[in-house]
Design brief:
Elements (H helix, E strand, L loop, with lengths): L1 E3 L2 E3 L1 H27 L4 H22 L4 E4 L11 E8 L3 E4 L2 E4 L6 E7 L4 E2 L5 E3 L4 E3 L6 E3 L4 E6 L4 E5 L5
Parallel strand pairs: 10-13
Antiparallel strand pairs: 1-2, 3-12, 4-7, 4-11, 5-6, 7-8, 7-9, 12-13
Length: 170
């Protein structure tokens, strides 16, 4: 039993008080983290880095003769404010999505994970790669882009990469 000036606290009461304060502090930290993680452009930039690494792993699967799968997810609250795209530039260096203009710093036949942070569009050079053969996206060899929620399959064939959008019923 602990003695205090105006009374005493039992050991069980002291443990309960400590646990209550700890839970309160944890809740504040979680709430604070949730607020700050949704602010700023660093979050979408970090997401684009992680998505590109995942995309590279899936292309490596295709290079080994397997089917690569790629999908990006995003909170619906951020959609339109902070967006991430997988963009195939083909033989061009720019790609427009609405009034947003994305630029690839890579060679021809390049693909990048790019992002819009609410103020500017960006395709970081380290999040771009060039394919060593043509890319056939659902029968088309031109430019294309996917956004969050779209799932694709990646298959490497003798002469080309075949990338196809996966229909949700599959």
């Amino acid at each position: 039993m602990w003695r205090v000036k105006k009374g005493s606290l039992e050991t069980n009461e002291m443990i309960g008080l400590i646990i209550g304060v700890a839970v309160f502090i944890i809740l504040i930290m979680v709430f604070k983290g949730a607020i700050f993680s949704s602010l700023g452009s660093g979050n979408v930039e970090e997401s684009s880095d992680a998505y590109f690494k995942t995309f590279e792993k899936e292309v490596a699967k295709a290079n080994e003769g397997n089917i690569g799968e790629f999908i990006m997810w995003q909170r619906m609250d951020d959609k339109g404010e902070r967006d991430v795209f997988l963009i195939y530039f083909g033989d061009k260096y720019t790609f427009n999505i609405g009034d947003r203009r994305f630029v690839s710093m890579n060679n021809k036949n390049s693909i990048c994970v790019c992002f819009w942070d609410g103020e500017e569009d960006a395709c970081k050079k380290e999040n771009c790669a060039s394919f060593d053969r043509p890319v056939n996206y659902d029968g088309d060899y031109g430019q294309w882009a996917i956004s969050t929620g779209d799932k694709i399959h990646i298959i490497r064939e003798e002469e080309e990469y075949k990338i196809s959008k996966v229909v949700k019923d599959e």
